[in-house]
Amino acid sequence: MNYFIAIMKTVDPIKDEAIRKEHIDYLNDLIERGKIITKGPFTDHTGGLIIFRAETMEEAWQLAEKDPAAIERTREFTIKEWKSTLNI
């Protein structure tokens, strides 16, 4: 299994606040399915970070694109493959 860092930049804060519950519910479902190992907002309120567990970059993008924040275009996503130097 590979890890992918998704950096989310908030581009529509008002609409983003309106869909926050759906966004969090979606991410919590992915956590339950073992597809996310950690997530959280940036303290400067500009977006957040997700670490996906996926087989491929394509799978990571598919997970990100199903996020209500992506569907509603309240956040822009950048995804990079990441290698941990810890046993996680």
UniProtKB/TrEMBL annotation:
Sequence ranges assigned to domain YCII-related in this UniProt record: 14-83
Pfam families according to UniProt: YCII
Signal peptide: none
Source species, domain of life: Bacteria
Protein family: Belongs to the YciI family.
Name of this chain's protein: YCII-related domain-containing protein
Organism whose genome encodes this protein: Cytobacillus depressus
